[in-house]
């Protein structure tokens, strides 16, 4: 949610930038006006009561006293009494004490911890790669807009409008179709648009070039925004800040590549377009290795981040990649009537065979005495004994 809101604020700031530039009339003054609001970030350190630390991160790093203080501050601001039975705050604090104890030492993690992981660093590398492509390939589409119209404000506002549409597109679709699916779709459309412009530019005319450029610009910005949004959900809480910083740094490198092309007067533009178009196709294969974070709990520890699995792209069952239901399934019985009936019938056929060495042979000749004659001899013997 915070990532989406920040995306909308970024688009809104880009819309206001031309008006501020007209008012300033000089680039040093414009640079100062754009930099001064960044001083407000100092309030994160100076005013801790205004921007308190996240209790989730404090609990993940085992800073128990700070967790209690933060929870009590939140409850005071919300007007909730911890001693009230309706709000069992004391029960929560006692559970924290019983789970961690009083002698627990804080555990701090840095980005260097990624060396001992397999899944987390892979996810961070893939998302950094997709963000680098999403920001760097935008120059390939905006340059084609210059051939359609030489007006600077046309290409600028068209890029800002497509950024706003990309934010709306992500908000509408990503919660329904999933993060990984929409990221894959954005990478595919971005790569196809770039390849078509690269291969067919000399054969295409203005209208089709404009459509492919706008579509590629739209989905390249969606690719960049969704990479940041995906990184916020996939990275564990204990290293989320460092991993997100690496992902955003790769996006800045992609934007620097576009600025470098402008400084060189489009020297080497064809190579730039070929490289980023190839990277866009390669990113489609990399995205397949990412897990799905839709309706999943955000990981807190490195162990939880390592346990994230990669679901199949096409689910054969709709509930395969969802959280398990609350109702417990009955255990499977070991008795199988079909197998039992087959066993009985096979045993019966085996025992009725004539070539078995242990089968009891039935005498072919009749007995010397029948049952009635045997019974008569026994009766006579009893009368003789009685007399």
Describe the structure.
The protein is mainly alpha-helical and 387 residues long. It folds into 3 domains: 1-51, no CATH class; 62-106, no CATH class; 112-306, Growth Hormone, Chain: A (Up-down Bundle), CATH 1.20.1250. The chain contains 16 helices and no strands. It is flat, with a radius of gyration of 37 Å. The N and C termini lie far apart (112 Å).
In short:
It comes from Labrus bergylta (ballan wrasse). With 387 residues, the protein is mainly α.
Largest sheet: none
Content-based structural category? mainly alpha
Share of helical residues: 55-70%
> If you compute it from the alpha carbons, what radius of gyration comes out, rounded to the nearest whole angstrom?
37 Å
Number of strands: 0
**Low-confidence region ranges:** 318-335
CATH topology of the largest domain: Growth Hormone, Chain: A
CATH hierarchy, class of the largest domain = Mainly Alpha
Average pLDDT value?
78
The gross shape turns out to be flat
Strand residue content: under 5%
SSE map:
Elements: H1 2-24, H2 27-35, H3 43-46, H4 55-60, H5 64-77, H6 89-100, H7 119-136, H8 138-148, H9 152-177, H10 179-200, H11 206-234, H12 240-263, H13 269-287, H14 302-306, H15 337-351, H16 371-386
Helix pairs in contact: 1-9, 5-6, 7-11, 7-12, 7-13, 8-11, 9-10, 9-11, 10-11, 10-13, 11-12
Region (Disordered): 298-322, 364-387
Keywords: Membrane, Transmembrane, Transmembrane helix
GO cellular component, one term: membrane
Name some characteristics of this structure.
flat; MFS_sugar_transport-like; 65% helix; mainly alpha; 3 domains
């Amino acid at each position: 949610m915070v990532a989406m809101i920040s995306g909308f604020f970024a688009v809104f700031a880009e819309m206001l930038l031309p008006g501020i530039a007209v008012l300033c009339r000089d680039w040093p003054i414009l640079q100062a006006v754009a930099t001064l609001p960044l001083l407000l970030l100092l309030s994160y350190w100076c005013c801790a009561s205004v921007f308190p630390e996240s209790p989730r991160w404090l609990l993940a790093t085992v800073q128990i006293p700070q967790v209690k203080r933060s929870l009590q501050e939140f409850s005071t601001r919300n007007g909730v009494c911890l001693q009230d039975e309706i709000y069992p705050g004391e029960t929560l604090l006692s559970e924290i004490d019983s789970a961690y104890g009083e002698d627990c030492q804080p555990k701090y993690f840095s980005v260097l911890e990624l060396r001992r992981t397999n899944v987390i660093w892979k996810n961070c590398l893939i998302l950094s790669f997709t963000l680098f492509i999403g920001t760097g390939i935008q120059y390939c589409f905006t340059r084609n807009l210059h051939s359609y119209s030489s007006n600077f404000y046309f290409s600028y506002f068209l890029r800002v409008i497509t950024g706003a549409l990309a934010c709306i597109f992500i908000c509408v679709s990503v919660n329904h179709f999933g993060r990984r699916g929409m990221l894959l779709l954005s990478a595919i459309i971005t790569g196809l648009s770039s390849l078509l412009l690269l291969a067919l530019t000399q054969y295409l005319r203005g209208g089709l070039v404009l459509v492919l450029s706008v579509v590629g610009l739209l989905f390249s910005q969606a690719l960049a925004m969704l990479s940041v949004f995906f990184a916020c959900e996939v990275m564990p809480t204990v290293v989320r800040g460092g991993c997100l910083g690496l992902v955003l740094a790769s996006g800045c490198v992609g934007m620097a590549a576009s600025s470098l092309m402008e400084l060189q007067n489009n020297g080497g533009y064809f190579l730039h377009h070929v490289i980023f178009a190839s990277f866009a196709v390669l990113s489609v294969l990399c995205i397949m290795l990412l897990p799905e974070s839709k309706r999943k709990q955000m990981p807190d520890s490195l162990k939880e981040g390592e346990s994230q699995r990669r679901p199949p792209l096409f689910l054969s069952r709709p509930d395969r990649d969802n959280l398990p239901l609350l109702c417990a399934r009955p255990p499977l019985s070991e008795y199988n009537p079909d197998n039992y009936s087959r066993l009985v019938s096979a045993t019966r056929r085996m025992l009725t065979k004539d070539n078995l060495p242990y089968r009891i042979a039935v005498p072919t000749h009749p007995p010397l005495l029948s049952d009635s004659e045997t019974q008569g001899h026994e009766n006579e013997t009893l009368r003789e004994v009685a007399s």
